[in-house]
Amino acid sequence: MSALAGKRALVCGASGGIGRATALAFAEAGAQVIGLARSADKLETLRAAGIEPLVADLQDRAGLAAALEPWLDQPIHILVNNTGGPKGGRLLDTDASDFLAPFERHVLAAHQLVRALVPGMQAAGYGRILNVVSTSVYEPIPNLGVSNTIRAAVAGWAKSLSRELPPGVTINNVLPGFTDTPRLEALGAARAGRDGSSLDEVQAAWMKDVPEGRLVRPEETAAMLLFLASPAAAMVRGQSIAVDGGRLRSI
Ligand SMILES: NC(=O)c1ccc[n+]([C@@H]2O[C@H](COP(=O)([O-])OP(=O)(O)OC[C@H]3O[C@@H](n4cnc5c(N)ncnc54)[C@H](OP(=O)(O)O)[C@@H]3O)[C@@H](O)[C@H]2O)c1
């Protein structure tokens, strides 16, 4: 499939989980892919698929600008904003300062990247900005208070941008449900530790609320991102689309 032939894509959080699967899917679809993350060694493993590494920390705005600079000589048509999720916990146990780092990497880094890349997208007449967020945009998730707060901010930012971006440059959110990645394993292990249960028991409890009855594979989330990145999705704009096996109850 060559749905992204001739396109350049910057995929953030490409060293693992959903970002890695997305970088691979985009490369398979013919895009020239730049994979961004902090772990140089994990990014190197993507070179075999033609994915070029960009080592940067989304919590370091000056470092991000410097690392991105050499890649801006040609338009980057597709931007996937994706990074590590905030730590779990009750809001009443959360210090105000604990919001700063996740706000920096989820909202401010995404905003910085959009402002750097949109001129090139506009000049090329083609732009796709995709944000990997969470189903908590629609239904806040217990014990993920910081995440619920930050995801709502991302959704409001993206919807606002969807009214400002020029024709041909769209923005959309993909909302993963329980997806089989290192992030979910860490959340499951923390929950098991708190409850005195096993990881299998935690996952079985989660699956009771998922009509499809299994974890989402990262490749399935990447498939939605691939569609939204493609020319076929030209009229999909400002939407938040869940890939969650039916877990969301709201319409
Ligand atoms: N998995 C799920 O069930 C699920 C459900 C709902 C929402 N989500 C959300 O979807 C997003 C992706 O999830 P995932 O499960 O794929 O996460 P993951 O397995 O933890 O992967 C996160 C990726 O982001 C990169 N990253 C983290 N902090 C970074 C930073 N400061 N600068 C640059 N890169 C950074 C990591 O690479 P380095 O460590 O190499 O930098 C890694 O490549 C997260 O926001 C997550 O909360 C996931």
Could you characterize what this model shows?
- The structure is a single chain.
- The chain has 251 residues and is of the alpha/beta class.
- The chain folds into two domains: 199 residues, NAD(P)-binding Rossmann-like Domain (Rossmann fold, 3-Layer(aba) Sandwich); 35 residues, no CATH class.
- The chain is 41% helix and 15% strand.
- It has eight helices and seven strands.
- The protein has a seven-stranded parallel β-sheet, with helices on both faces.
- Helix 1 crosses helix 8, helix 4 packs parallel to helix 5 and helix 6 crosses helix 7.
- The protein is globular and about 55 Å long.
- It starts with 7 loop residues before the first strand and ends in an 8-residue tail after the last strand.
- The mean pLDDT is 97.
- It binds NADP nicotinamide-adenine-dinucleotide phosphate.
- The site of NADP nicotinamide-adenine-dinucleotide phosphate has 28 residues, from helix 1 and helix 6.
Tell me briefly what this model is.
The protein is an alpha/beta fold. It has helices at residues 17-28, 40-44, 61-68, 100-124, 145-162, 182-195, 199-207, 218-229; strands at 8-12, 32-37, 52-55, 78-81, 127-132, 169-176, 240-243. The protein folds into two domains: 8-179 and 217-243, Rossmann fold (3-Layer(aba) Sandwich), CATH 3.40.50.720; 181-215, no CATH class.
